Amino acid sequence: MLAARVVQDQGIHVEGVNFFTGFCVEGHTHAIRDRKHEKPKRNNALWVAEQLGIKLHIIDISEDYKDIVLHPRHGYGQNLNPCLDCKIFMVGQTLKLGLMDDLDFDFVLTGEVIGQRPKSQRRETMPIIAKESGANDRLLRPLCALNLPPTLPEREGWVDREQLFGFHGRNRKPQMELAKKFGFRDYAQPAGGCCFLTDETYSNKLRDLWGARGSRDYQLDDIMLLKIGRHIRPRPHFKLIIGREEGENRFLEGYRNQFTHLAVTNYPGPLALIDGNVTGTDTELAARIVARYSQGRSVDKLWVTVTSVTGVSQDIEVTPFAPYELEPSWHVGS
Questions:
Q1: What span, in angstroms and rounded, lies between the C-alpha atoms of 85 and 209?
Q2: What angle do CA 75, 22, 218 make, to 5 degrees?
Q3: Are 40 and 175 contained in the same domain?
Q4: Is residue 47 in some structural domain?
Q5: How many structural domains are present in the chain?
Q6: For the whole model, what pTM was predicted?
Q7: What gap in Å lies between CA 328 and CA 29, rounded to an integer?
Q8: Cα–Cα distance between 142 and 109 in angstroms, integer?
Q9: pLDDT of residue 36 exceeding 70
């Protein structure tokens, strides 16, 4: 938001690019859950484009992005975040888009700041991103440009270098002061955190998925479902995805035709999906776990409806698990 505005203020036409990877927090989890928020639910990329008065290109790269997640040349960060490869890929894709004949842009800009991120925004990684993305010196970082050699837009006089900035480090106060100067009173959380791959719990769920299937691969539905509900694996060959509140239950409803699913019949409770293959004893185990998270958790017996992917339903009577019966190791991601 700040980088675009800095360049806009020099009379330069700017357009935004927002990539959908499938691992974005924005516009998915925030919108599903029924938690009460003071701030309205929104996609911040769209909102920022509106505040800046610029066109926004929204591009789905979720399929091409798989290779970045599965085989990052520069490795992962603290969890499964391929931040350096991700930045290289996105800058490269932006460059390709911008240099198309029908757009004919001159350079790419990002909001990167030296030292702000431990993996992808270090002084030694800045040239790597520029080179391997193909942008080279057509990549401008307006917020930290004064700490870097002049780029082509600066040398050619397209951009006045003296009006750029030399921010560095993890402190966001200089950026917040600049936002105040521009009149931005409302903006996304300055520290970022918009990618689930940086999250330890989510990354552990993805590793569990790979381990259970014996393959480091995923489909878009897989990574969407990893964002939702409690994931409990009581046996190596199956796990339960259990809705935690009404919004998640509604989301899981959309997957009922793809998974065997369970719901408590005579008490309010969650919807749960079974990912894997189950036998008769597995089904009873799954039903007892789901009953534990219903409002009938304290009764001796209750009924759970189990529906297969073919639509065949059966009601089984079970005793809900007591809290101490749920093995801590069953909770995936924790």
A1: 23
A2: 70
A3: yes
A4: yes
A5: 2
A6: 0.90
A7: 25
A8: 7
A9: no
SS (H, E, C) 41-98: CCCHHHHHHHHHCCCEEEEECCCCCHHHHHCCCCCCCCCCCCHHHHHHHHHHHHHHHH
DSSP result, 153-165: HHHTTSS-GGGS-
- Domain shared by 144 and 53, yes or no: yes
Residue 237 and residue 184 in one domain = no
Q: Indicate whether 31 and 126 sit together in one domain.
A: yes
Tens-place pLDDT, residues 11-35: 999 999 999 999 987 656 666 765 5
CA–CA dist 206, 195 (Å, integer): 14
Which structural domain, as residue segments, surrounds residue 21? Answer: 2-197
Q: Considering 197, 213, 236, which residue would you say is the last residue of a domain?
A: 197
**Average pLDDT for 231-253:** 95
Same domain, 171 and 296: no
> Which one-letter amino acid corresponds to residue 23?
F
State the DSSP H helix or E strand holding residue 246, giving kind and residue range, or none if neither: helix 246-253
Closest CA to 87 of 121, 118, 57, 62: 121
* Same-domain check for residues 135 and 239: no
The Cα 265–Cα 194 span in angstroms is 37
Last residue of a domain, one of 176, 197, 218: 197
Per-residue pLDDT, averaged over 149-170, amounts to 95
Per residue in 116-158, pLDDT (tens digit) is: 776 678 888 999 999 999 999 999 999 999 999 999 999 999 9
Are the C-beta atoms of residues 176 and 189 closer than 8 Å to each other? Answer: no
Helix, strand or coil for residue 33?
coil
